[in-house]
Amino acid sequence: MEKFKTLTGIVLPLDRVNVDTDAIIPKQFLKSIKRTGFGGNLFDEWRYLDRGEPGQDCSDRPLNPEFVLNQPRYQKATILLSRANFGCGSSREHAPWALYDYGFRVLIAPSFAEIFYNNCFKNGILPIVLSENIVDRLFAEVESMPGYALTVDLENQTVTLPDQTVIPFDIDPFRKHCLLNGLDDISITLQHVQEIKAYEERKRNETPWLFQRNNE
Amino acid sequence: MMGKTLYDKLWDAHVVREDGDGVALLYIDRHLLHEVTSPQAFEGLRLAGRKPWRVESNLAVCDHNVPTTYPRNDIPDPVAKLQIDTLDRNCREFGITEFGIEDPRQGIIHIVSPEQGATLPGMTIVCGDSHTSTHGAFGALAFGIGTSEVEHVLATQCLVQKKLKNMLVRVEGQLPAGVTAKDIILAVIGKIGTSGGTGYAIEFGGETIRALSVEERMTICNMAIEAGARTGLVAVDEKTIAYLKDKPYAPTNRQWEKAVAYWTTLKSDEDASFDKVVTLDAATIAPQVTWGTSPEMVVAVDETIPDPEQEKDPEKKKGMERALTYMGLQAGTPITEIYLDKIFIGSCTNGRIEDLREAAKVVKGKKVAANIRQALVVPGSGPVKEQAEREGLDRIFRDAGFEWREPGCSMCLAMNADRLEAGERCASTSNRNFEGRQGYGGRTHLVSPAMAAAAAIAGHFTDVRRLYS
Ligand code: SF4
User: To the nearest whole angstrom, how far is the Cα of B312 from the nearest Cα of chain A?
Assistant: First the structure.
């Protein structure tokens, strides 16, 4: 996983509540057995005027000019700003894969759905929870100021606005550590092999039926 | 000392090590897999040269992509076929038990696992699928995970988790005739919202829940995720135990006795305290119908479509307007005047035998209305289908004009050929009414099996309670 330390980037405002994972990446693209290549189909149903199919060349598809992702001023955005309950719905990790593949590294919203929130950290994306008030302010500023950019500093847990206002955010220390160092948490867990084995030993005595082989 | 909730008990029993701050390494007893969220995890395992930690804890089945018609293995979409073949190949390579597409036990993973007794009380159960919350109906700690976590469980049999807060949803009173478990959970979501349960494990309790069958409790826990909670729970009782007796994967003889003794302790202590308690009076719940593009956009069948002008929160108001445009509906329209194009009875929410019985009762001796282009019944698993056929339910549905299909996820998410066309309106017993969920431009109304069946006959929504009175 790529490390995340600081980022200064253009902000894309997606002014909707309850943006669900079916909207982030529609189900027909989940048939892929790879982790990459989803960026062209991010927000597919909102972004294009036709119906997307896997494996298609997206470059000559008709774009929906109304959709914010297609507006020239937000090209190259790396920070996505949205409303409450972002990422609700399914557990599909294809949603963060698509956001990452498109180029987003930071998401800001008043709240995120849990499984999605968790999945972001496994893929080098930093989801930041800020209060409704601040999110309202960011929406107002982004829309009135072309080229609007924020600076995110994970080490210091801050978001800095163009007028130098500094807004702190919370993050779980373990997740912060993994993201800062680009650590794969499987290898971290495998440092505790002895403890896992000891747990299994104990449980084999207490609840042996959980360790029986399947009746195959 | 203060008592523990059921969630606390399940959590404590699975902590391998604690890292402070409520973060722990949690041991996983049962890992369920399907074709959509596992290929990248197996690939990761292979690239790192790792093996599954405890191969027998895994159980795989293909369900999301499979055709619901004969022949089962004739999959015209090469991308879907590759995904199914990839699951077969991965399971063979790593020695994991899989119920393949032609196995009589094949079906939707959340129906298959309890049916085989692979879901047991007291277990931690995970799957790369958000509706894993279903298994909480057995007093198990069950939740959905992403693909990176699927790989993590395969490699280590553990997950790094943060402890959730405790919420109790207490439902008391007598459920009126024609009102079902599906209506209870939709009413709960309507009340607390789709992020009302975020950060909580929700235990469903109270006399109404205790009076429900195990399958009905599964419907309720299934949609805990639509209320924002990763986990739903119901305490173990004699019904849970009776359901599991003699199931293929359940323990036997002395082990069974030992297990039952433990399982009966799996309930919240009398003096346990919850961070939040929500109470519902079952007697006041009417059959529910969603009108929008989020499960919280729900009203009773005898109500009208709400007016965004009445909504004070500007964000919510915008969301309502957008939903009405997408759904092609007008504020103020009575729900019973909404006409349908398609009917879908199935999914891990309502694809079990009791659901089919409930729908068949409404359909029996009647015909699907002329304006309904397609009415599908998709049993949740091979054994559900067999049982229904033994009871003659397939005949009842077929005679009325329904199509009787093979098991799978089908039109719940339309990854196979079963789907809505743009603009089509569907009464569906599934769990999500998001834009495009059942097909590009499709319009979904979530309802109970009885309500879907009644809508099929009438051609529009109708209050199923009238058929019961
Ligand atoms: S039936 Fe629907 S909700 Fe359930 S597992 Fe399948 S796709 Fe997911």
Answer: 15
Phi, psi angles (nearest 5°) of residue A15: -85, 70
B290 Cβ under 8 Å from any chain A Cβ:
no
- Ligand 1-lining residues (CB < 6 angstroms): B 63-64, 108, 110, 129, 131, 347-348, 409, 412-413, 430-431
Q: Which residues contact B385 (CB under 8 A, 6 or more apart)?
A: B379, B394, B406, B407
| Residue B281 CB coordination number (10 Å) | 13
Cβ atoms of A124 and B264 within 8 Å: the answer is no
What was the ipTM of the complex prediction?
0.94
Q: What is the pLDDT of residue A215?
A: 46
Alpha helices in A25-172 (DSSP H): 44-47, 94-102, 114-121, 132-144
Kind and range of the H or E run holding B399: helix B393-400
pLDDT of residue A214: 52
Is residue B444 within 8 A of residue B344, CB to CB? The reply is no
- Give me the mean pLDDT over the A65-89 stretch: 96
Q: Which residue of A has its CA nearest to B58?
A: A214
For chain B, say whether A27 makes contact (Cβ under 8 Å): yes
Q: Do A16 and B322 touch (CB under 8 A)?
A: yes
Nearest neighbour of A210 by CB, restricted to B17, B123, B413: B123
Band of residue A216 on the pLDDT scale cut at 50, 70, 90: very low
First to last CA, chain B: 50
Of residues B64, B82, B156, nearest to A189 (C-beta): B156
Smallest Cα–Cα separation from B368: which of B302, B460, B290, B288? B460
Please check whether residue A54 touches B, CB under 8 A: yes
- The H or E element containing residue B33 is strand B30-33
| CB-CB contact of B45 with B138 (8 Å) | no
Atom of ligand 1 nearest to the CA of B413: 7
List of E strands, B268-330: 276-281, 288-290, 298-300
CB-closest option in A89, A115, A212 to B146? A115
- Buried residues in A175-201 as b, exposed as e (16+ CB within 10 A): bbebbeeeebbbebbbebeeebeebbe
Query: Which residue shows structure tokens 């005595």?
Result: A205
For residue B243, the surrounding DSSP H or E stretch is helix B238-244
pTM: 0.94
Partner A contacted by B128 (CB < 8 A): yes
* C-alpha distances in Å from residue B361, one per residue of A183, B357, B468: 56, 6, 10
Q: What are the tens digits of pLDDT across the range B196-221?
A: 999 999 999 999 999 999 999 999 99
Residues in chain B: 469
Chosen for mutation from B198, B266, B313, B416 (greatest number of chain A CBs closer than 10 Å) is B198
**Secondary structure string (H, E, C) spanning B260-283:** HHHHCCCCCCCCCCCCEEEEEEHH
